[in-house]
Amino acid sequence: MAAAGLSLHIGLNTVDPARYDGWDGRLAACENDAHDMAALARAAGFSDTVLLGADGTVENVTTALRAAADRLRDGDALLLTYSGHGGQVPDVTGADDEPDALDETLVLYDRQFLDDELNRELARCADGVRILVLLDCCHSGSGIEVRELPTPEALDAQFGTADPAGIEAASRLMPLARQGAIYQRDKDFFQGLQRELRTGDGRPADAVLISACQDNQLASDGRVNGAFTGTLLDVWDRGAFRGDHRAFHRAILRRMPANQSPNLHVSGHPPEAFLAERPFTV
């Protein structure tokens, strides 16, 4: 039986200001990223689902990932792409999986989605499912979050300004002051969720992550695509690329500026044969 491929593409140009204390998180290119990655996936043989804007809720994302996990079997493929803001919340549960005591988040339409929540959903997949995750957001390097922002000189080189308002407009960073205020508002919820997640087996999903930047860098938005997604599409060249996942990452990295260096992170124990495959192979 031929392998099956399912893909989920999430793009959020805005979030719900009613859930983020009046902040709408406006970006320019995230929905374009999702559409373009879905087109790439379809051309490669995946059956795609696209969640944009108000559809990019925790419930919808979780439902789509669980439906994929229920369907996929050993040898099948799952592709997840996300373009939007990245954030982080304190982890005070005493767990030792976050050396900086922070959980990385995807800033979904209705609330932040913890990295451990994403891991839990991906870990539902059967053994042998080939999982590739592409994150075009800040704080996306490896699940070990940003401990400090780049220097003012580095920010000015990347965004043409070191002014926080200008950086927030040009990057996919959820403003730090906003992160802190929303966490204080919702900390009982997040601490309860973190404790709940710690009661599971904690098994890391077997997945390959290629992310937009290193842990101490920010991801740039753009007019058409995010800097990372646009470069990825150029490297893929409508399917002309023929290398494996590591070569794909290296090729993207070579085309990106030094102040935004995409990262390759291996979670759990995906088969070495998967890493040696051409990306987006069903």
From TrEMBL:
Pfam families named among the record's database cross-references: Peptidase_C14 (PF00656)
InterPro entries: Caspase-like_dom_sf, Metacaspase, Pept_C14_caspase
GO molecular function terms listed in the Swiss-Prot or TrEMBL record: cysteine-type endopeptidase activity
A GO biological process held by the record: proteolysis
UniProt superkingdom: Bacteria
Any one cellular-component term (Gene Ontology): cytoplasm
Record domain Peptidase C14 caspase: where: 19-264
TM segment ranges: none
Protein name: Peptidase C14
Lineage, uppermost ranks: Bacteria, Bacillati, Actinomycetota, Actinomycetes, Kitasatosporales
